[in-house]
Design brief:
Blueprint lengths: L2 E7 L2 H15 L4 E7 L10 H6 L7 E2 L7 H19 L3 E5 L3 H12 L4 E4 L11 H12 L2 E4 L2 H9 L6 E3 L3 H13 L3 H6 L7 E5 L9 H18 L2 E5 L2 H7 L9 E4 L4 H10 L2 E4 L2 H9 L4 E3 L7 H5 L3 E3 L19 H12 L1
Parallel strand pairs: 1-2, 1-4, 2-3, 4-5, 5-6, 6-7, 8-9, 8-11, 9-10, 11-12, 12-13
Helix pairs in contact: 1-7, 1-14, 3-4, 4-5, 7-11
Bound molecules: uridine-diphosphate-N-acetylglucosamine (UD1).
The site of uridine-diphosphate-N-acetylglucosamine has 19 residues, from helix 1, helix 5 and helix 10.
Length: about 350
């Protein structure tokens, strides 16, 4: 009988990663995958569109848990996932990244002694003010198989005493970009939708909790972005996350110099990235995706988990003026991270 893998997803980046792995899992004779959507992201352009575009199979359950404090969200998800796991008895639970959905999935599984498989294990910012840092540290310490995207992430786990069942597999986000690249170049609808893109532009995204707490802090980002645009003779395309939209509502902050757009689908953002001169972002995923498209990035944070993008001169923190000298990054693999993960699962589970 096939082993039952339950994938827990809830946010935009998790849908993208799960799509890659789902496609590969489908080809395995050993596993059958079931998807559970926590509902953390729920707007159509933050959720449904990814399921449609990336042909992810419909979730068996959608918990519809969102818009709560961190503790409440994680607790409600934990309770609901435990009930599902008791009923469905999965053989393993697959979690992605570092969101509240990741931690809730890992905790629910751990309490029922179900093996946890963590994709994107070992990343660290060493900044506990980020809810994501807490989620990823705890998830790693509960996991049975840890799939690391980079050498640094393997090392980080090592330092914390996690040395067994740690696998360096490369980055499933790179698999996803290669898949998208085949489709976007010839896609006429994308070309038509984005005819408005200026000749020279930078893509801007800001959505993290720590970036959207203080209006003063946000204004500092904008001042930086505006002077960056002036210096480099660029227009700024700002894709506005729902958290950021809510935060800016009723504020006096002026976004007049920016071209605002709604959140994009996966193929859309890959298309825009492939045409951008720069990326300015506080997102984790975009820092690497910028590199995949060979677009220089400025990270609007005080640290990053993706240190190799900085070392290789494709990324810099906004507090640091210059890039290091540019080179290729080997860590992210060759677009075969998902097949490596499934092979390890076949051998170990
Ligand atoms: C979450 C993750 C973060 C990840 C990001 C990807 C945590 C702690 N953070 O942050 O690691 O990088 O997703 O995007 O889990 N909202 C909507 N519509 C939506 C989604 C959210 O209106 O479709 C609103 C929520 O109600 C909330 C705010 O946006 O008020 C923030 O949502 P939240 O679920 O906390 O996650 P993100 O900020 O997206």
């Amino acid at each position: 009988m096939k082993k039952r893998i339950f994938s827990i997803v809830g946010t935009r980046p998790q849908f993208i990663k799960a799509a890659v792995l789902s496609r590969t899992l489908k080809k395995s004779s050993k596993f059958i995958e079931t998807i559970v959507h926590t509902g953390q992201h729920f707007d159509s352009n933050m959720s449904d569109i990814f399921f449609r575009e990336l042909a992810i199979k419909s979730p068996m359950y959608n918990l519809n848990i969102n818009g709560k404090s961190h503790g409440q969200m994680t607790a409600h998800m934990l309770e609901a996932l435990e009930t599902i796991f008791i009923k469905e008895k999965p053989d393993s639970v697959l979690v992605y990244g570092d969101t509240n959905s990741t931690l809730a999935g890992a905790l629910a599984a751990a309490k029922l002694k179900i093996p946890i498989l963590h994709v994107e294990a070992g990343l660290r910012s060493y900044n506990k003010n980020m809810p994501e840092e807490i989620n990823r540290v705890l998830t790693d310490h509960l996991s049975s198989l840890l799939f690391c995207p980079t050498q640094t992430s393997v090392h980080n786990l090592n330092v914390e005493g996690i040395r067994e069942d740690v696998h360096l597999v490369g980055d499933v986000m790179y698999d996803a970009t290669l898949y998208a690249l085949k489709l976007i170049d010839t896609n006429r609808a994308l070309k038509e939708k984005f005819v408005f893109l200026p000749e020279n532009f930078a893509l801007l995204t800001i959505h993290r909790e720590e970036s959207t707490i203080s209006l003063d802090g946000f204004q500092k980002f904008l001042n930086y972005v505006n002077s960056f645009a002036k210096q480099n003779d660029l227009k700024i395309i700002f894709s506005v996350h729902p958290r950021t939209r809510k935060f800016l509502e009723n504020s006096q902050i002026s976004l007049n110099n920016l071209i605002l757009i709604d959140p994009l689908s996966y193929f859309e953002i890959q298309f825009v990235l492939s045409r951008a001169q720069y990326v300015l972002t506080d997102s984790g995923g975009l820092q690497k995706e910028a590199y995949f498209h060979k677009v220089p990035c400025v990270t609007l944070r005080s640290e990053t988990e993706w240190v190799e993008t900085i070392e290789a001169g494709w990324n810099r923190l906004w507090s640091i003026e210059h890039y290091k000298s540019r080179q290729d990054i080997k860590d992210y693999g060759h677009g075969d991270a998902a097949s490596k993960i499934v092979k390890i699962m076949e051998a170990e589970l």
